[in-house]
């Protein structure tokens, strides 16, 4: 179990480093004003951040997911493993149920972590050197929010996070299970790693597509109040206002950058976890690209998703 936990942490960290630049782009596109948009699309947003805020602008808020990965992976691994042992049979349906349970419980850490990440990513928009930094770092961000708004403040967006993460993790684990069963691979298979990369990447894409509209709402709720004024009174009000202003476009705001991020992040995570476990375990037990109920269950997002 200790090796699985460490492997998950390493895989998650690798995924964050690979995917964080596009995560910043995603959040900026999701929360930008519809009436006065700063960015025309994914690549324009990417170029604008690099030009206006330097390359480091793409990595704003990375401290929060890096700090939270250990706790999130501990929860995901523990819940997923225990759930699969209780369910007994290793089937795609049970993988979905176990993944959904893990996704729901890890929201306790995921929600505050993504709140800090979102606030840091929005700070200093369009400025190479921020003249007025509200938050020094992710931890300072959470402390300031707690001092001002209390426990409720640092859990802003919890309901939307729960609605996103629960089915999202279920779809993720189920898709990966189905793909690895279909592709099949053995340790001697020279195509094992490409198959593993493909299965992990496609599982991440399937997970994000299944819950993406709720991720847009979550980002808007967590970014709300950055300028000192709250626009939304809650999740229902956010959905109502957003739909009234944008219609169906709300459902795909920032989706391109999310999918560009999803494949390499999850492919990197699975490859890192698998190679680490193969190296550490050696010939102790058979190793294939289909995870056991208690191993090889990394998450799809610093979340998220």
From TrEMBL:
Where are the annotated coiled coils located?
none
Pfam families documented for this protein? Mito_carr
Task: List, alphabetically, the Gene3D superfamilies matched.
Answer: Mitochondrial carrier domain
Keywords per UniProt: Amino-acid transport, Membrane, Mitochondrion, Mitochondrion inner membrane, Repeat, Transmembrane, Transmembrane helix, Transport
Any single biological process term in GO: mitochondrial L-ornithine transmembrane transport
- Indicate yes or no for the key word Chaperone: no
Q: Which molecular-function annotations from GO does this UniProt entry contain?
A: high-affinity L-arginine transmembrane transporter activity
**Its membrane topology:** Multi-pass membrane protein
What compartments host this protein? Mitochondrion inner membrane
What is this enzyme's catalytic activity, as reactions? L-ornithine(in) + L-arginine(out) = L-ornithine(out) + L-arginine(in); L-homoarginine(in) + L-arginine(out) = L-homoarginine(out) + L-arginine(in); N(omega)-methyl-L-arginine(in) + L-arginine(out) = N(omega)-methyl-L-arginine(out) + L-arginine(in); L-lysine(in) = L-lysine(out)
Primary location group: mitochondrion
From the UniProt record, list the Solcar repeat ranges: 2-86, 90-182, 194-279
One GO cellular component term of this record is: mitochondrial inner membrane
PANTHER family per the UniProt record, alphabetical? MITOCHONDRIAL BASIC AMINO ACIDS TRANSPORTER, MITOCHONDRIAL BASIC AMINO ACIDS TRANSPORTER-RELATED
Q: Which family does it belong to?
A: Belongs to the mitochondrial carrier (TC 2.A.29) family.
Q: What is this protein called?
A: Mitochondrial basic amino acids transporter
Organism equals Anguilla anguilla (European freshwater eel)
């Amino acid at each position: 179990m200790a090796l699985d936990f460490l492997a998950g942490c390493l895989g998650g960290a690798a995924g964050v480093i690979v995917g964080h630049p596009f995560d910043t782009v995603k959040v900026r596109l999701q929360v930008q004003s519809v009436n006065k948009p700063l960015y025309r699309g994914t690549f324009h947003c990417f170029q604008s951040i690099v030009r206006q805020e330097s390359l480091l602008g793409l990595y704003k808020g990375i401290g929060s997911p890096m700090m939270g990965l250990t706790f999130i992976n501990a929860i995901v691994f523990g819940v997923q493993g225990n759930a699969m042992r209780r369910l007994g049979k290793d089937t795609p349906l049970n993988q979905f149920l176990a993944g959904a349970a893990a996704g729901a419980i890890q929201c306790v850490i995921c929600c505050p972590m993504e709140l800090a990440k979102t606030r840091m990513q929005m700070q200093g928009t369009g400025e190479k050197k921020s003249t007025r930094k509200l938050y020094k770092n992710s931890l300072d961000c959470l402390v300031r929010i707690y001092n001002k708004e209390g426990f409720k403040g640092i859990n802003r967006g919890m309901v939307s996070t729960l609605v996103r993460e629960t089915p999202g993790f279920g779809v993720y684990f189920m898709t990966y299970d189905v793909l690895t069963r279909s592709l099949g691979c053995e340790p001697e298979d020279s195509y094992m790693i490409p198959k593993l990369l493909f299965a992990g990447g496609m599982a991440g894409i399937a997970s994000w597509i299944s819950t993406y509209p709720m991720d847009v709402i979550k980002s808007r709720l967590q970014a709300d109040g950055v300028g000192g004024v709250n626009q939304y009174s809650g999740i229902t009000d956010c959905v109502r206002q957003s739909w009234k202003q944008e219609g169906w476009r709300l459902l795909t705001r920032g989706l391109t950058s999310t999918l560009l991020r999803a494949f390499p992040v999850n492919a990197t995570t699975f490859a890192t976890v698998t190679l680490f476990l193969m190296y550490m375990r050696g010939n102790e037990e058979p190793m294939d690209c289909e995870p056991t109920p208690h191993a090889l269950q990394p998450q799809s997002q610093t979340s998220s998703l």
